[in-house]
Amino acid sequence: MVAIPARPASRAAKPFYKILYVQVLIGIVLGALFGWLLPDYATSEWVKALGDGFVKLIKMLIAPIIFCTVVSGIAHISDARKVGRVAVKALIYFEIVSTFALAFGLLMGNVLRPGAGFSGHGDAAAVAGFEKQAAAKHAVDFVLDIIPDSVVGAFAKGDILQVLLFAILFGFALMALGERGKTVLSFIDDVAHGVFGVINIVMKVAPLGAFGAMAFTVGKYGPHALGNLAGLVATFYATSALFIVLVLGAIARIAGFNIFKFLNYIKSELLIVLGTSSSESALPALMEKLERLGCSKPVVGLVVPTGYSFNLDGTNIYMTLATLFIAQALGVELTLSQQITILVVAMLTSKGASGVTGAGFITLAGTLAAVNPALVPGMAIVLGVDKFMSECRALTNIIGNGVATVVISWSEGELDRAKLNAALARRVDVADVATGVTTG
């Protein structure tokens, strides 16, 4: 099993400016200022490349990390029935919470009506490229997409669901081999340590990635670009915040922990997500921190990667809220049955959506096309501010997956309550400060 390195007995804390999450925060602030004051330079290719390059560095390691952690987590379990039980629990949990997220977005959209009286108009040409990608897939197509044409192709394309499927099958195969599979399992564990070592190196440039991503965004769109769309952005952020506090907070309380202390524990990962608009950027560090929080490694290895495809609370809220906004902006009144259709369709189109920025916009296109094709041209209305909402989508997604992992570990009786209480009660983790990678 891939073990988390032991904490050093004593180690002097680094100056605050050498702590990773402080550096990322500084990068975000400087990037915003640079984009505002020097927009022409901020929108240059080299600035954009800083953010895009960092995300690509992380993405190149996601497939091997998921493969190693899932295989190791399954192969180290002697009871195959346990794996199935955890998977079923996770999927049921994901569907219930996802439904709450979709309904929450619909509720806030109907109550606040951010698109009512909107004076803008859609540009069909601006969304023509999305219409071909927007066709809603049938359930059969989705199942077939999970099965890779080849294992190598799944890794080469970075298709998380396909890699996850192969990892689960390979893990069960090693479990069945017993002692004969120990050598291969030990090799996979060593590879996992090496991959996490590469992640530690890559994370050193996280502040640069955050700077580049924020500078390009502010430089290209600027505060004035929000215009009348500020209401949508504010509504989406408020809805996501309420969902985290009320829904996820209630779930956390049932499981015996405080949502605000949990957010403080993963604040460095949240800042990385904020800077890159990608929840995948923080996946390796999140998995490591959840293990340190007392969650069982097999549960972490199964729930977190699966959640990145099936538990996208932020994306779900965005799809229902944005759909209502577009309909209101175009003067299209949706009936109750159409809104229920949005709920059902969005539940399907959101599955397999990546944590990378922009994926939510594609899934929104699929939802609009399935509910009412007349709404698709209205996507041009939110095209300019989608970037500003992608950060919130990613933040809500990663928080939801973190809470889900703790809850599933708790339900399995594999949550170390002493570790959980100690970690959440600690304002700053000395070992995390020393490493500067998984600061809590």
- Low-confidence sequence ranges: 1-11, 119-138, 354-358, 428-440
Q: Return Rg in Å.
A: 22 Å
- Main sheet record: none
The total domain count is 1
- How much helicity do the residues have? over 70%
Strand content: under 5%
* Mean model confidence by pLDDT: 75
Global morphology: globular
Superfamily (CATH H level) name: Sodium:dicarboxylate symporter
N→C terminal distance: 24 Å
Count of β-strands: 0
SS-based class: mainly alpha
H-E string: HHHHHHHHHHHHHHHHHHHHHH
Which fold does the CATH topology refer to? Proton glutamate symport protein
In DSSP terms (H or I, runs of 4 or more residues), the helix count works out at 22
**In terms of quaternary structure, what is this?**
single chain
CATH class: Mainly Alpha
CATH architecture: Orthogonal Bundle
Written account of the structure:
This protein is mainly alpha-helical and 440 residues long. The protein has a single domain (16-435), classed as Orthogonal Bundle (Proton glutamate symport protein), CATH 1.10.3860.10. It is built from 22 helices and no strands. The chain has helices spanning 20-37, 39-42, 45-75, 80-112, 124-131, 139-146, 151-157, 160-177, 182-202, 206-221, 230-255, 259-265, 267-276, 283-292, 297-310, 313-329, 336-349, 359-371, 379-383, 386-411, 417-425, 430-435. α3 packs parallel to α8, α16 (313-329) packs antiparallel against α17 (336-349) and α17 (336-349) packs across α18.
